[in-house]
Amino acid sequence: MTSRAGALHLSPRQLPPLPLLLPALVAAAAFGVLFWEPLITLGRDWWSDPDAGHGLLLAPVAVFLAWRAGLEPAGRGRPVLGLIALVLAVGLRYLSGLAAELFTMRLALLGAIGALVIYSRGLPQLRRWWLSAALLLLSIPLPDVLTSTLAFPLQLKASQLGATLLDARHVPVHLAGNVLHLPGRSLFVTEACSGLRSLTALLALGVLIGGLWLRTAWGRAAIVGLAIPVAMGLNGLRIFLTGFLVYFVSPSLGEGVMHYTEGWAIFVVAFAILGACAWGLSRLEALLRRRSAREATA
Questions:
Q1: CA distances (Å), 271 to each of 89, 168, 204, in order?
Q2: CB count, 10 Å around CB of 262?
Q3: Does residue 171 fall inside a structural domain?
Q4: Is 159 exposed, middle or buried (0-12, 13-18, 19+ CB in 10 A)?
């Protein structure tokens, strides 16, 4: 039906009936009320916390990958299973709200999203979006208790590796915990330099590369597993480079712009290493597939 001004108008028959829209609107409003706090605090941490900044990249990538994967043709809603999962997610949200624990509150948010997917499209749709779900899970910052527990051992390991490399290059160094004593200068490996931030980012990168480039479960597990020694090794190399430059060039190179530039450069190297490992694993997968095909036809 066309008005005199030439604009198109939908007739009432073309609009979705209100009884069909009302449950969706009520569910959206209830979801917003229940999970507004974890959504807002998660976005705030992504924006302001350097240890959580990778979420600003992972969340949009996860949404894009889900959109690209599309809907599962065989997907059928599982209302009973979806409601059970939703009740569990809401219960976790309530308990975590009582304890003011953000990590489990955000897990409840993801659980509720998964429950709605199961309710409307079933488990096959959730499996189709597994990569997006994994990236969203990795975008949630770890709780402070776990971060502190993991950071200190990583500080010690990185300090030991850095001191070993410096000693191999005949740089006089004395290691005391996470402090490297050089002639006229001491390098303190702080929690920010523990490598936990780069480890979290590289694990997410390993999941993304494995999901996009590799086809087998063992290949994907291998690339994620390789991210751990790569992150730890390159963080030790970063400490070595800092000590080397401080000793042979200038003490000012142990801080400021140069120090942060080293961190970015090391991360680029880590990305290249993971990319090369993924390429090698993809070639190995193709070789094994061809061998299996030949054996099947023999």
A1: 35, 26, 11
A2: 18
A3: yes
A4: buried
With b for 16 or more beta-carbon neighbours within 10 A and e for fewer, the 59-73 pattern comes to: bebbeebbeeeeebe
Instruction: Please list, in sequence order, all residues whose beta carbon lies within 8 angstroms of the beta carbon of residue 204, skipping any fewer than 6 positions away.
Output: 54, 58, 135, 138, 139
Task: Please write the tens of the pLDDT for every residue from 2-54.
Answer: 444 444 444 445 545 656 567 677 777 888 888 898 899 999 989 988 778 88
Domain count, the chain: 2
Element (H, E) at 47: helix 18-48
The answer to whether residue 63 is domain-embedded is yes
The tally of CA atoms less than 13 A away on the side-chain side of residue 188 is 3
CA 276 distance to own-chain centroid: 20
The residue out of 141, 156, 173 marking a domain boundary is 141
Residue at 297 is within a domain = no
- Do 200 and 137 lie in one domain? The reply is no
- Out of 141, 159, 178, a domain closes at 141
Quick one: tokens of 267?
């991360």
**Residue 285 shares a structural domain with residue 149:** yes
Compute the distance between CA of residue 34 and CA of residue 292 in angstroms, rounded to an integer.
51
State how far the Cα of 134 lies from the Cα of 131, in Å rounded to an integer.
5
Query: Do 208 and 236 lie in a common domain?
Result: yes
In a domain, 5, yes or no: no
Task: Give pLDDT, residue 282.
Answer: 92
pLDDT on residue 280: 93
By residue range, what is the domain housing residue 246? 145-289
Q: Which residues pair with 188 in a beta bridge?
A: 179
b/e burial code for range 242-259 (CB count within 10 A of at least 16 → b): bbbbbbeeeeebbeeeeb
- pTM of the full structure: 0.79
Neighbouring C-beta atoms of residue 231, cutoff 10 Å: 28
